[in-house]
UniProtKB/TrEMBL annotation:
Protein's recorded name: Methyltransferase domain-containing protein
UniProt superkingdom: Bacteria
One protein family per Pfam: Methyltransf_25
Keyword Transmembrane listed: no
Keywords assigned by UniProt, alphabetized: Transferase
């Protein structure tokens, strides 16, 4: 599983490498250049400076670039030996299928490559278009479907669902996306469950409602921004919360954890699934650049910070595992949050 996650990130990273080459950026960096130099010469937008820096860090993590200091400031320069054994004659990365065949396959590997090359553009026009960002809506519906139903993503979500349905039949799917998590919960319960599904994207909420669910499923799908206080939920009315792929987008994590603690029954389960956490894994620079391509702001924690924050909020770790820098942390409600003297 870990090898598959890392290999998929390599496929993404080498797609970025291809457009850095075809755009002329790597050629321009034959001499040490500062970020402002690149923005001027390549005609990138100054407001996409952060995205450019993330791209440079990703290329440096592949040892394509090296950072040097000139006149007291950071400069980037192409590493002369950048070809590498893993490229075919066309300069394309050759996926290590043995690492991903149990999870993806060659077709999926090519989909990762082509989707990202098309989005970034062969000449990196992504860095010249002020409003071009990946959004959680129907404009990228097929790409989100491909990502969120991939075997690797389904594996992690499946483990969360297995633990959740063992806790009861009343669930909250927070940042539900197109609804695959809610659907998997309902299927695992045989329809004998109630699910509140919330997402900031009206498109995703509509897609959630359009999915097929087993007879008897009580689904309430609503548009709601996860960076706002949760809608009213009765105290201790939820047996389990699936929070998959979005905890890193929360600004005030402590506030959301406190609200979820109140909504959960004692012993209720919170699954922080597919959460980007800085853990020092080889795919970290790739994830940073990926998130810079999204419209939503990112507020990641280190893995140790994430665990400490949940414990302070009154949760106990039950299970965890990693898919590269995407981590899964399953915690249960056990006590009042640190500093709470209300006796809840």
């Amino acid at each position: 599983m870990y090898d598959a996650a890392i290999e998929s990130s390599r496929i993404f990273s080498h797609a970025v490498r291809e457009v850095a080459d075809s755009s002329g950026l790597l050629t321009y960096l034959a001499e040490p250049r500062g970020v402002d130099d690149m923005i001027g010469h390549m005609e990138f937008l100054p407001e996409k400076r952060d995205q450019l820096v993330c791209l440079l860090r990703l290329l440096a993590s592949q040892e394509l670039l090296r950072e040097v200091t000139v006149d007291g400031g950071p400069r980037y320069q192409t590493n002369g030996a950048r070809a590498g054994r893993s490229l075919d004659d066309d300069g394309r990365y050759v996926p290590q299928i043995q690492h991903i065949e149990g999870w993806y396959g060659d077709d999926y590997a090519e989909a990762i490559r082509t989707t990202n090359i098309e989005f970034l553009g062969r000449d990196l026009e992504f860095l010249r278009k002020p409003h071009q960002f990946a959004r959680f809506d129907k404009s990228l519906a097929e790409e989100w479907r491909l990502t969120m139903t991939s075997p690797l993503y389904e594996f992690g979500r499946g483990l969360c669902v297995e633990e959740l349905v063992a806790r009861g039949n009343r669930f909250l799917d927070l940042a539900c996306g197109p609804g695959y998590g809610a659907q998997r919960i309902a299927e695992a319960c045989g329809g004998r469950c109630s699910i509140v599904a919330l997402d900031k994207s009206a498109d995703f909420v509509e897609m959630t409602r359009e999915l097929d669910y087993p007879a008897g499923t009580e689904l309430r799908a609503e548009v709601h921004d996860i960076n706002l206080p949760l809608p009213e939920l009765a105290p201790e009315s939820i047996d389990g919360v699936l929070f998959n792929g979005s905890f890193h987008f929360i600004r005030d994590k402590q506030a959301r954890l406190a609200e979820l603690w109140t909504a959960l029954r004692p012993g209720g389960l919170l699954c922080l699934g597919h959460t980007f956490a800085r853990s020092g894994f080889p795919d970290e620079a790739m994830r940073e650049f990926y998130f810079s391509m999204l419209e939503d702001d990112l507020f990641p924690l280190s893995w140790d910070e994430l665990i400490a924050l949940t414990e302070q909020a009154g949760y106990r770790p039950v299970r965890n595992f990693h898919q590269g820098s995407y981590s899964y942390l399953l915690v249960e409600k056990v006590s009042a949050p640190a500093g709470d003297r209300s006796g809840r």
